[in-house]
Amino acid sequence: MWNLESAQWTSSRVLFTLEACFAFIGIVTNAVLFLATFRSSALKSKCNFLIGSCALFDVIHLSGNIFGLSIWIGDGHIDSFTCSVLQFIPEIFVYAGCFCVLSIGIDRLFSVSFPVCYRNVERLKYLTVHLMLILIFASYAPFLMIKYYQPQTVICSLPEPFHGDGKYLWIQAMLIINVITLVPYALAWISLKSRDETSYTKRVFRAIALVMIFDVGGWLVAVALTKLIYCIDMPNGNRLVLQFFCGCIVHFCIAIKPIIYYSSSTEYRNVLREFLGWDSIATSHAHSSSLGFGPLFELPIFYGDGFIDSFTCSFIQVIPEIGVYAGCFCVLSIGVDRLFSITCLSAYRRIDQRAYLSIHLLIIFIFASYSPYLMLAYYKPHRVACSIPAPFHGKSQMLWSQAMIIVNFITIIPYTLTWLTIRSRQTSSYTTRIFRSLLLVMTFDVGGWLAAVVLIKAIYSLDISNGNRFVLSFLSGWFVHFGIAIKPWIYYTTSTEYRSAFRSLLFPSTTPSQQMIRPSTSKERHSHK
To answer: What is the residue range of the signal peptide feature (predicted)?
Structure first.
């Protein structure tokens, strides 16, 4: 029995609901990817078969989330035998899905390193070997479930069919396979960089590598966090809450994989659009900002006991804290700008640029000033380990995270309205490409902040020691900094204009003929303006 308190029940149910939503989205997107792959004559390569198989494995894995619905019924507990039976098939396909991503990496490395041999190998035998290796690894999951089975009462979730040492071995195997998966992708990328491969081959591999980063990254973060929460001494209720949070990370990353294939591969985009009956559209472009040198002031954690007085921490973090709020609101401003440009095109063209941008910057500044206000209004002299949330004391910590959650949720609205407007109108491909790039950046930025702030809110609501709270607060920073760090890379990969600008800045000797994608025409630009 978990013996959860009221707050822990509420947190668990909220996080499970979010996890179930990601699982549902993942089931739909991966089912579409699977069906489109096996029905299309354009996706018949060995690699396409493995990608389609991965999508099927993910669908079956995510369907296991249905059996967690017991958390909403009574006290949420069922016996471990029933849970093991219900999760038996999904657990097999968790391992199968992870190993399948490794198989795709091996396939890409083989095709790049030995192209002649790869083309001549018999397709049926080749895929049979891959599927046999996937099956062998996947069979380790039911082995652990049976060998270490213990009759008990559980709240049925992904790790619960593994009891005693079986849980640690399950986590260990997941960590090992995901770390190993990085190797063939890294080697294939190095091989591609050192050879004069076609732009098509590079684009295909980049799409697959991006999916791998999400898949493996999601699993590594979730499994590492699961291992951490079972090593830290905390109440079982808090452990369950954080376990559901791990599930949210994994299910989000799995759900987004088909979307990445759609947005980064012309082949998959055409096939998926044909399968869904959509008219063809195109790719992206954008702008956003946030101050990122605040973590430099966390370096005292490496010296002595890592603590400094709160006044010093507040003083050195005041500019970065303003930048945090300014960066978040700036993403909202971009969304409002895109919505205005699409819905009121003639007014948008006529508006004075200086006055327009001044209004945006003034609103950003007003919102950003709320951060130093909270720092001053609720300031308390004490010693802290200086991090982004540390300058906010007492009630201000809750108000700070609350404001972040609100502005990030509001940010979703103008992007959604703009996307619906674009879908309902005959807008130019250039406009559509710009907005898709912005939408992808917004997803990472807002997603990273929401994940981080919700985690901070959860760890300050749960009854855990300050030490454990401190460790988990640093984990929340990973989501934010990853979301911010990846934004320029998204601009580079999805926008012709930004790619050209980056290359001319970083590689002045690069000639236009080396660019892989056609620059947008002046006619397209004019239709946007």
So the answer is: none
Q: Are 500 and 271 in contact (CB under 8 A)?
A: no
Three-state DSSP class for 95? helix
User: Could you identify the residue written with the tokens 């089975």?
Assistant: 149
* pLDDT digits 0-9 by tens, 485-525: 777 777 777 677 777 777 777 766 544 444 333 444 444 44
Q: What CATH fold (topology level) applies to the domain 294-528? A: Rhopdopsin 7-helix transmembrane proteins (1.20.1070)
Q: At what angle do helices 165-194 and 140-147 cross, to 10 degrees?
A: 170
CA dist., res. 498 & res. 433, Å (int): 12
Count CA atoms closer than 13 A to 208's CA, side-chain side.
30
DSSP element (H, E) containing 79? strand 78-79
* 466-485 vs 487-494: helix crossing angle, rounded to 10: 20
Residue with tokens 């002045």: 508
Closest by Cα among 243, 212, 264, 262 to 37: 262
> How far is it, in rounded angstroms, from Cα 225 to Cα 500?
39
Domain extent listing, the chain: 6-276, 294-528
Tens of pLDDT, residue by residue over 344-396, are 888 888 888 888 888 989 999 888 888 888 888 888 888 777 777 778 888 88
Report the alpha-carbon distance of residue 90 to residue 381 in Å, rounded. Answer: 52
The token pair at 304 is: 């002595």
- Residues 492 and 501: their CA atoms lie apart, in Å, by 9
Same fold, 6-276 and 294-528: yes
Exposed e or buried b per residue across 10-47, where buried means at least 16 C-beta atoms within 10 angstroms of its C-beta = ebbbebbebbbebbbbbbebbbbbbebbeebeebeebb
What is 6-276's CATH superfamily? Rhodopsin 7-helix transmembrane proteins (1.20.1070.10)
- The CB-based long-range contact list for 489-494 (8 Å cut-off, 24+ gap) reads 490/284, 490/286, 490/437, 490/440, 490/441, 490/444, 491/285, 491/286, 491/437, 491/441, 493/206, 493/210, 493/264, 494/263, 494/264, 494/283, 494/284, 494/285, 494/433, 494/436, 494/437, 494/440
What contacts 264, CB < 8 A, 6 or more positions away?
203, 206, 207, 210, 493, 494
Helix axes 236-264, 266-276, angle to 10 degrees: 100
- Asked if the model's pLDDT at residue 284 lies above 50, the reply is no
**pTM metric for this prediction:** 0.55
Burial 486-495 (b: 16+ CB within 10 A, else e): bbeebbebbb
Residue 383 parent element (H or E): strand 383-384
Alpha helix segments (H runs only) across 195-307: 199-231, 236-264, 266-276
Beta bridge partners of 2: none
pLDDT attached to residue 144: 94
More confident residue, 236 or 322: 322
For residue 127, the one-letter residue type is: L
Other CB atoms within a 10 A radius of the CB of residue 505 amount to 8
